[in-house]
Every structure is written in C-alpha cells, then in structure tokens.
Amino acid sequence: MTTALPNIGKPAKNALDNLGVTTLEEVAEYERLALLDTHGVGPKAIERLQTALKEIGLNFKHEAITNLPFEFEGDLNCDNAPKRRRMIDFIIGIATIDDALLKKIADDNMVWEIAGYNQETYSLEDFISELNEHKTAITSIEVKHNISHGKMGSVDGKQITKDGTITHFADFFEFESHKKDAKIKKVTSYVIMEEEDD
Q1: How many CB atoms lie within 10 A of CB 36?
Q2: Where does the source fall among the domains of life (predicted)?
C-alpha cells in the first residue's frame, strides 16, 4: 500500500515527478537536504512532506522517527517493502507496549522465542503480558539493519534504558506468507545486555 503526496504545489510536484518520486514512501528514501537542493522543492513543500510523513510513521532518510517517548533512529526506511515497515512497527510496539499496534501487525498465535533463555510464548496475549511484566523506561533505540526477503526478515540494533542498561538485539521474523499484508508469525530474539560505563 502506498500513500499519495500531499498538496505541495506544482513546482515541487513536478520536481519530485522528475526524480520518479510519486508516493510518501518514496520521499522517505531521500534525505531532507537532498530534496531541498532539488530545483522546485522549497521549505514550504519540505514542511508539508514532513508533516505527511509523520502521519504515517515515516521521516526523511537518516532522520529519527518523532512523537515517541524515546529517541528512535537508524535504518528506518521501508524502501517500498511493507514487511520492513511491519518490523519497525514491531520494535516500536514492544518498546511502547502498544497493544493495538501489535495486534494489527502480529498473528494472534505468534510465537516469540528468546534464544538461550528457554523462554517462548505462544500467543500475542502472552507476549503482551510478558512485555508488561518487564516494562522499562527507554531513552533511545537505534536500528542498525532492517532486512526482509520473502517470508523472512531481521532487524538488529541497540536500546538504552534510563537506568543506563544497553541492550544489543537481533530479531528474526517469520511472516505468515509472502503477501505484503502478511502478519508476523514468529519472532526469535537474541539479546546481549551490558551496563553503560560511568
């Protein structure tokens, strides 16, 4: 599913058309300054694009997603890959314990496994309960890689909590099918925790 561009004026629309950019998802593949340097795209168009991007949870390339209670940055672009978007939504959903978001993107019978901890949950409800039991205040999340192919995908990065704990994570996803709107069927998580140096 793609999102149409907002009303940004004819010169800016023509400039984006010349770049082959016709959707907001394609705008998110560009850095703000690169578009601003494009003849015909002015500050007002950039402001309207940014507002529209935020409404669908995206931003310009290499910029943090805002409107979250923590800093969130890194490889956040979807590259027109809906499964990459779902994995970013999953990271946001578990960090904010957003039941509605998680129920939208994950199967009710999703299996979650933490490698090396002999811990596995067999339903989305169990998963959300587990998140609530271990709720912690997060200051930042950085996504280093976000890759999808067919029914599989992976995201890795680093999370820092308010108490200074650094968690390096790698999540491996299996989706129900190859379809663009397929829900998450299984997540295998690898975590390494360390204390931040004083």
Answers
A1: 14
A2: Bacteria
